[in-house]
Amino acid sequence: MKKGYKLIYKRPETLTKTRINYCPGCFHSTIHKLLMEVIEELDIQEKTVGVCPVGCSVFAYNYMNVDMQEAAHGRAAAVATGIKRMLPDRYVFSYQGDGDLAAIGTAETLHACNRGENFTFIFINNGIYGMTGGQMAPTTLEGQKTTTSPYGRDPEKIGLPLKMSEIVSQFERVAYVERVSCNTPANTRKAKKALRNAFEYQGKKLGTTFIEVASNCPSGWKMTPEQSLKWLEERVFPYYPLKVFKKPDKKEV
Amino acid sequence: MGELRLMKGNEALGEAAIRAGLQGYFGYPITPQSEVMEYLAQQEPHHNYVFLQAESEVAAVNMMYGAGGAGARTLTTTSSPGFSLMQEGISYIACAEIPCLFCNVVRGGPGLGTIQPSQSDYFQSTKGGGHGDYHTIVLTPNSVQEMVDFVYLGFELADKYRTPVTILSDGAIGQMMEKVELPDPIEYKPDKPWATTGKTKDRERNILTSLYIQPEDMEKKNQKLQKKYEKIKQNEVRFDEYKTEDAEIIIVSFGLTSRVTRKSVDIGRDKGMKIGLFRPQTVWPFPYEKLSEHADKDRVKFFISIEMNAGQMVEDVRLAVCGKKPVHFYGRMGGIVPDSYEVIEQIEKIKE
Asked: Does A82 lie at the interface with B, CB-CB under 8 angstroms?
């Protein structure tokens, strides 16, 4: 550090020095950074084990400098259950997209939540299958066009988008559910706080913690990053409001 | 000398797992294996392992992946339809090289089938089961005693080779009661520096994955697995023989059928037929070499594979014998166990 300079920001040690391969404007890189900052700030790198899914974040272990397991599509909650049950004093998280957590892995998600598995779900909901090229997801909005709903999602045919935070917050053993986003600096700060809360509650063994990120996918949505932020405000948040659905009692915390 | 008890095969397997240092059991109820789960659920408070009933076999196998990856000694048990559901997970476990022990208490199929014993999952267990080039070591118990012994052996081999191991049992071995000698409990101390237990300062992060997106990397991974499988083939072939020294007719059977055909050997010999029994205890790796040696003997006239399926292991017997002698087959399907006299009748028909 040069004399007279003050360090105000640096890359967390918990992020590897690998070039991140996400598309420009995508929230994945932001959330990776927030998550790894939280792990560094809580000083729990040595006690953290992550599970990555099948989807855009399938390579999350290339970027996150913690022990990680790569799960089969949809099975992250079961894998995380196995890890946490064997290592109850570690911090375990699953990092999953909407196809993974809310379509092919719905059973694993709901049962892990119902059991109150003491790990943290980080649920990236961008309403589309990004990795496979923009197909319809369980969370694609009504009327939204994707490669497999080229005329727009038709609820008559396929139902309405699944609201996972609303669903899992009804389980008694789920301790904390919040939906956040990273579309503005203020919301990004709130997202980081939510992640930090989740890990702190996990440390206190309060039950399942579930952070949903209302995320974007400029490439899959066929939008510029800027347009994708506008879409979030105008279309996504009215259906998927940003809020705390459930949090532990003050005395528990 | 360990402890002697009269036990059901499924319960003996559960007890053996506890004694062999079980740390995590994840399973889903299905007949005819549910007694393993029930036994382990009942014993859980008295021991230091985790018992968890999963929401499906799909979840159970992935809990195995997570727990085994975290370094624990893990077991799941199921029966045929459930084992089919686990195949995807086993492919991932094989590629990520996570030691896990599976027991398939086989019932008759295909489909929902029957709850009676069968050996119709031989192909599934020995030729892959899931996608991609992989194998699991497959042990075939023919007694309650071997249900116990193969748990110890299975855990050991899983750790030694970082591979999934399958105990291919069946509904009869799982349900029948026999005298069994239980070995002393061992204190299991895992030495797994590759496990995901949290990245400490003195090492790089551990990653367990089956994803190698660059084809060159994926080929390298496959070569590594194949090298391991070659080593297993060299070191871990197991078989048992009964009166084969002077045999002209060699019966090949594994698991429950080998109990039936052992008696057939005695019945045949009483009739003056020179019969012997060759029993693979590992069906992957299969004892090709030893069977091939038998085929080279002038006195050996033919082989007959007796199975409870439509003819699955017989393909491996033919590969081993390689056209040197005739290889016949007789099987019963759908949960029917052939009897010892029926087998002799079949052999007499061939001789005529």
From this structure: yes
Strand (E) or helix (H) holding B226:
helix B215-235
pLDDT tens sequence across B183-242: 999 999 999 999 999 999 999 999 999 999 999 999 999 999 999 999 999 999 999 999
A·B CB contacts under 8 A: 130
| Residue in B67, B201, B206 nearest the CB of A82 | B67
Q: Quickly name the fold that domain B239-351 has.
A: Rossmann fold (3.40.50)
Q: Which residues of B touch A81 (CB under 8 A)?
A: 52, 59, 63, 66
Tell me which residue has tokens 């009964």.
B242
- To which residue do tokens 């994803």 refer? B211
Spatial contact of A140 and A182, defined as CB atoms under 8 Å apart:
no
**Which residues does B contribute to its contact with A (CB < 8 Å)?**
23-24, 26, 50, 52, 54-56, 58-60, 62-72, 74, 88-89, 92, 96, 196-201, 205-211
Tell me which chain A residue has its CA closest to the CA of residue B58.
A75
| In chain B, where the domains are located | 3-235, 239-351
- Whether the full predicted model's pTM is greater than 0.90, yes or no, is yes
Query: Selecting from 3.40.50.970, 3.30.950.10, 3.40.50.2300, 2.40.50.100, what CATH number does the domain A27-149+162-246 have?
Result: 3.40.50.970
Interface confidence, given as ipTM, is 0.96
